[in-house]
Amino acid sequence: MPTYTVQSDVKALSVVTRLVAPSFSQDTCHSFLKGAQAREFARELRYSSVETALIIILGLPSIYTGIFAGVYTAYKQSIIDKIIDYSDLYPGVYVKTIKSSYGTFYAVEPWTDTTKATVTLTNSDSATERVLDVTYKK
What we know:
Blueprint: E1 3-5, E2 12-21, E3 24-34, H1 35-47, H2 50-58, H3 62-65, H4 73-89, E4 92-100, E5 103-111, E6 116-118, E7 128-137
Antiparallel strand pairs: 1-6, 2-3, 2-7, 3-4, 4-5
Keywords: Membrane, Transmembrane, Transmembrane helix
Transmembrane segments: 53-75
């Protein structure tokens, strides 16, 4: 379970992981966004594709952003609403974007301690998850 220290001048942190198991794999983008950055992410998500939002807000290389594009409108709106609500109530927002052959899924949670970001990796006898990329945005 890697934990990353987040300095006060960092606005966002992105950790991209890949989980591999027999006949299955998924890529996950763990986005830790401080207040204003979370609202900006939500606005970009509303008016553009997920891919564009990840490039603009998090500065992710395009090799990783393409896997996160393509979200249905109603589902996307519910994610946007959660991001905005949490950014109003908490100092940060944690957005987990999961892409597999089954589709793209999101989890949005409050990020209360914005001095550190912890990513839980799944590792067992049949599955291994590893970190592919870490990006800080100041």
